[in-house]
Write a structure and sequence with these properties.
Blueprint (H helix, E strand, L loop, with lengths): L1 H4 L3 E3 L2 E2 L1 E3 L2 E3 L6 E5 L6 E6 L3 H20 L2 H17 L1 H12 L3 H26 L3 E4 L10 E9 L2 E5 L7 H12 L3 E4 L6 H13 L7 E3 L4 H9 L6 E5 L3 H8 L5 E4 L5 E4 L5 H13 L11 E5 H15 L19 H16 L3 E2 L5 E2 L2 E2 L2 E4 L16 E7 L2 H10 L2 E2 L1 E5 L3 H10 L4 E4 L12 E2 L1 E2 L2 E2 L1 E2 L1 H7 L1 E9 L9
Parallel strand pairs: 9-10, 9-12, 10-11, 12-13, 14-15, 14-22, 15-20, 19-20, 22-23
Antiparallel strand pairs: 1-2, 3-4, 5-6, 7-8, 8-28, 13-26, 16-19, 17-18, 21-25, 24-27
Helix pairs in contact: 3-5, 3-7, 4-5, 4-7, 5-6, 6-15, 10-11
Family: Belongs to the aldehyde dehydrogenase family.
Keywords: Cytoplasm, NADP, Oxidoreductase
Enzyme class: oxidoreductase
Amino acid sequence: MADFYDEIFTSADTLKYFVKGEWKVSKSGKTVSNWNPSTDELAYKVQACTTSEVDEAFESAKAAQRSWARLPLWKRAEYLHKVDGLMKVNAQPMADCLVKEVAKGAKDSVTEVIRSGDLAAYTAEEGIRWLGEGKLLLSDSFPGQERSKLCLAQKVPLGVVLAIPPFNYPVNLAISKVAPALMAGNTVVLKPPTQGAAAAAHMVQCFAKAGLPSGVVSYVTGKGSEIGDYLTTHPLVNCVSFTGGDTGIAICRKSGMVPVQMELGGKDACIVCEDADLDLAAANIIKGGYSYSGQRCTAVKLVLVMESVADELVAKVKAGVDKLSVGRPEDNATITPVISKSSADFIEGLVKNAEDKGAKLLQAYKRKGNLIWPLLIDNVTRDMRLAWEEPFGPVIPVVRVKTIEEAVDHCNANNLALQGCVFTRNVDAAIAISDAMETGTVQVNSAPARGPDHFPFQGFRDSGMGSQGIKNSLVMMTKDKSTVINLAKPSYTMG
């Protein structure tokens, strides 16, 4: 397996970038460091691509796109199936990168790679089904018209898609953008996060080894502060698919006429009703809030619980939190170091603000470097930052409410509205609460989650724009084209 990936490296810790079907070293002579969150030691170095190298990536993508779009659907699907197979056969080195550069647990890292291969394969099949369908419109279906025109409507690609995934799922959220883009006939320029760039490079090598034509997939790296705006405002970009934080809002404002697909984080609220199965709710809060140290856009980030059951629920959650394993990702600990010192400092600031204003920490606050021990914080009130801001760490605030209306109002007052969940045994209440929650997805009796990957996935307000999920991404990365056939009036009449 090592030989499969050898050509993506210049040395044991330095990666190349990929353009025109070749792995290259930047003419800048510079690299950007990628640090191991667990040890604070250098994990990898990636190329600091120049703007001219970014130009080369887009120009090669543009040049390759027309011929790629003319490939039969079955052939594009065949490539994606090859990628699926290569990712699964060569999964372990890719998963090892995730452990090393984003501190993801070893088992979860392998799962991310396998899931991403499955996503590529499903996209191939869904693409054949959906893109293979056309539509015929007859002119005489409109008042006053004769049957003199036939309109043939079809889906065609947008062109060149810029894909920017986040650090926490640098393989899965890259594939969720790249696979639909390619199946729809687009070409792709991928800009990975620096933390996660090594795993993304391994993934791109699977596309390269699958035999995709030169220019169909490119991979460029560098500091977002240096090439970010240049990438997102490049004149050859026809679509931007971005997952991340506030940067996405700035991209939207600068994108002009370019379609955008944005997922920008969330403050996922969990509403626990009086009649809820509290054991079920507690188990989902623990799993949903603390897996991968809470560094998931769909993590439970706020519990809104009815006062009458709050003591019992909090006791159950605390008991589970106290049993969570804390340590190294190599050992599959549930709580591993967060991605960076700045992230850990931000989380600590939220905790301190809540504690200073009277919230009750149910575990002693403990931090070692980027490793923060899991915290359940009770009696959080609306004047605390934790009631509104996304910690992206192993911290869950609990707000006690008197009514369900109060809980829903709190959820709807937040500018972040990606997902939420409600726990109740009453299906009528579940539907009513879901209808009232102004958030992209509401889970009933389960923690928020992105998958399965073919489900629609979207955020409201500052949590995003457009909808994801395999089918929705195919829709978003295509446009309608009509061919109208004007029929000559027949010289004979049908008797």
